[in-house]
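Dear support,

Our group has been running a series of protein-ligand predictions, and this particular one with guanosine-5'-diphosphate is the one our PI (initials K.S.) wants archived with full inputs and outputs. We had some confusion internally about which version of the output was final, so please treat the block below as the authoritative record. The input we submitted was:
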Amino acid sequence: MAKQIKPTSALKEQQGISQSEITNQDSIDVIKNKRKVQLQAKTLVKDILKGNIAALSRGITLVESKNKAHLKEANSLIKKCLPYANNSIRIGITGVPGVGKSTFIEAFGNYLISLGKKVAVLAIDPSSTISKGSILGDKTRMEDLVKNPNAFIRPSASGESLGGVARKTRESIILCEAAGFDVIIIETVGVGQSETAVHSMVDFFLLLQLTGAGDELQGIKRGIIEMADAIAINKADGDNLKRAKLAKVEFERILHLYPEKSSQWQPKTAICSALKNEGIENIWKIIQAYIQITSENNFFNKKRKEQNKFWLIQTIENQLKMNFFNNPKIIKELQKQIGLIENNETTPFVAAEVLLKLKK
Ligand code: GDP
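Confirmed final output from the archive:
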């Protein structure tokens, strides 16, 4: 039988077969592939710095990869991009499903692009981590913005823990900034813990609300209101306009109940209609005012530094936890200790001590 000619890695790449899909059929291929991945990361950096969207996409895919062999490459990519990062304004946008987040981001993004900006939109979608379904990603969203060459839209990595998605989003921010995006929007659904994660990676946090603030606050937790740098009441159009104005006043009153923030910024309220493209410019003005005040009093830089510290500790905690609970010895001993607890033969504290003292 004639020996089948294997396509070279270069050909595979030309054919659109990604590095991760290249099968390691013999040791030479393995070595070649390893070199190739490294080379790819190097060229990726160059192309990302040129603002090449395809390279940015591939870079984010590398960062999101669960393949352990890619981790080193991803880290080197981040390291190389880091000196070119940090130059954007990072804006978090949250609100319950249906409040109009994607409609708003489309209007807002297009407005910013009309000012000559480059806008990247990243999403953190807790639903995709829990149910593997997606509140943010399953519909056709931001159709216009997607087509714009000055926009980049990336749905969240799915099937990951929130911590995992958050970490990857932070790394994606760095890549987007290196690619020259000057406004990065991080979108999330305002129903869970994800706002806290988003809040700790953005400069400005915008909460979108519907009319009828009332007592129930539409399921939005008090903590989210407290995190907001501005609350915009969306769908302020048609019959809803009057109610939106009333809701604005109500939210203003609520915001004044909170103590002054260390940023010295008094959170603002606004009304807008994402659908009719109204009030969008005003929200950008609010964000600019925030940047001016917090740059002058140095809060802006201080906050970014604090965020870096927070993520350092967070990453260590996650890693330690993962190492601990994935250790086969721990898995076995944990079962045993749970059994003992159930039979009242030990206490949770003694059991914890036994587990923590267990050698690797
Ligand atoms: P998301 O789930 O928060 O992303 O919300 P969408 O952007 O998908 O919007 C949900 C629905 O509200 C869609 O039918 C939109 O057309 C509508 N919508 C969004 N913004 C506005 C607005 O400003 N005014 C009105 N009347 N409808 C809006």
